[in-house]
Amino acid sequence: MRLKSISNIAKITKSMKMIASTKVTKAQRSMETARAYGQSATSLFKHTEVPAESSSPSPIIVAVSSDRGLCGGIHSSIAKAVKKDAAQAPSSAIAVIGQKARTQIQRDFRQNIFVHFDQVTKVHPVWLEAALVADEVISARAASAPAAASSDDAAKTGALDGKIYYNQFKSVISYEATALPIHSVEALSASPKLSAYEVDDAVLKSFEEFAFANSLFWAIAEGYASEMAAKRTAMENATKNAGEMITKLTLTYNRSRQAAITNELIDIITGASSLN
What we know:
By secondary structure, the chain is α/β, with parallel strands linked by helices. Helices cover 64% and strands 12% of the residues.
């Protein structure tokens, strides 16, 4: 009975591995496109020498995860990185994409989570979905910003300034929890080399929102590719472990069956000898 159930599990994990392998290829193509657009959009911040670290008293932290399991510790790496950063900034505001990371983060920082999203990238990452999530984060951030004594303090408190934590795709068998900086329009306006660009304030505000949505799409695409690769690896290991258990159980079954046959032969031979 146990041997049959493990054999069925091995068939399931092998099928899931084949499905994940197919999705990895498609996810890598989407990730490469999102990475190219994300790097080009954020290059302005490097050229204008915007500080990488946030100066906001209440920085925003976006955790990019998913609702799916059976993919190793890919969600735990994001949760650990977010909780470590949130511990250094107790007044930080956390936005969580995905149920798996939210379950771990809310154990210690439930009061810091101001918005969360489920069922994101249920099929595959798309720009429209990332843009809608970014718009909701911006709206929720503005609504949840605590009141400040002055307008300058309020602007700093509710600024779109912080980090996006996601799993950076290294290879099919490797990923790493990485932080992608989020720059506010205030930080961009105060950058030393912005004078080289003749840009209106309204355009800068629009670029801030676009850059955030673009970075979010980049993070979601990389996280999705890392998740599919991790799921493929996890199912491959599960299939391998099931195969080893099947081998051991088959050997045990054959030994017990052989022992039973031997005992029956001994009884027959003993009975025949006693008759003679």
